[in-house]
Amino acid sequence: MCAAKGKKGVVIVEGCEITVSNPDKYLWPDQQITKADYLSKLAALSPYLLKYCDNRYLTTIRWPNGIDGKSFYQKNCPEPTPEFVSTASLDGIDYVNLDSLPTLLWLGNLACLEFHPSFNYINDPLPAEWVIDIDPSLEVEPRIMEAAYLVGEVLDSLKIQAVPKTSGATGVQIYVPIERGITFDELRKIGQFIGEFLVKSHPNLFTIERLKKNRGDLIYIDYLQHYSGKTLSAPYTPRARPFAPVSTPLKWEELKMGITAQDFHLFNIQERLHTYGDLIQEVPAQNLYSILQHLK
């Protein structure tokens, strides 16, 4: 795919015509990432990002004037809508189904810089995976990787295989592929058990207090975020933050190496994927019924 020059250009991708407006506009000014650059990097990310957005209800965050400008959430599919864009209706909202590279680049041209898919597939009430969100109360939290590692130790003690990933912002998420059939409510029961155990074991580090004003400097184990109708940053989505970070799956040992979310960004994510591939795909679907039965 070549970058269009001037105020407007057209690219042909998989037989679909996509108009690119203002290709030279900076979306990440400090990193000098133009819209044309961004579309090229999205195309490279697409085999990985689409895997976690296809067949889901998609919410995007748009930054028409780049990350230094104003932003807004977009749930309804933008109009006019090209014929190649698929949509799915839910509760009166026509969501984009991000199922193709042309659709991804069309959204990229609209300055959609973040992609937040639903936790369930379209027309399916069951969760597609299980995600535990680890959310710091402080904007700068040097303990966040330690906290994620401790969550991983508990999961390992329960014989649950999982993959940590940076949110690309301040938090870390623990991603667990699951066997089909378990419900959101059942996953919340397991999440609550893990959260309460960690709060009891590390009271100076963790909390499950829902109100942020009551958390102090504790790290929130958000087992409630994973539910029907809610979203979270997709693996491999860019984030509209300084240094152009990308939500990136990690190896457990990396959590002890002093890394930060800003270490993984649009400039080096392709090299990492070439080296490691998609770490989430290496974990088989987990059977959680024995744990759930024990909790019952």
TrEMBL record:
A Pfam family that the UniProt record links to this protein: LigD_Prim-Pol
CDD domains recorded: LigD_Pol_like
InterPro entries attached to this UniProt entry: LigD_pol_dom, NHEJ_LigD
Domain DNA ligase D polymerase: 34-279
Highest taxon above the source species: Bacteria
Protein name (record): DNA polymerase
Organism of derivation: Paenibacillus swuensis
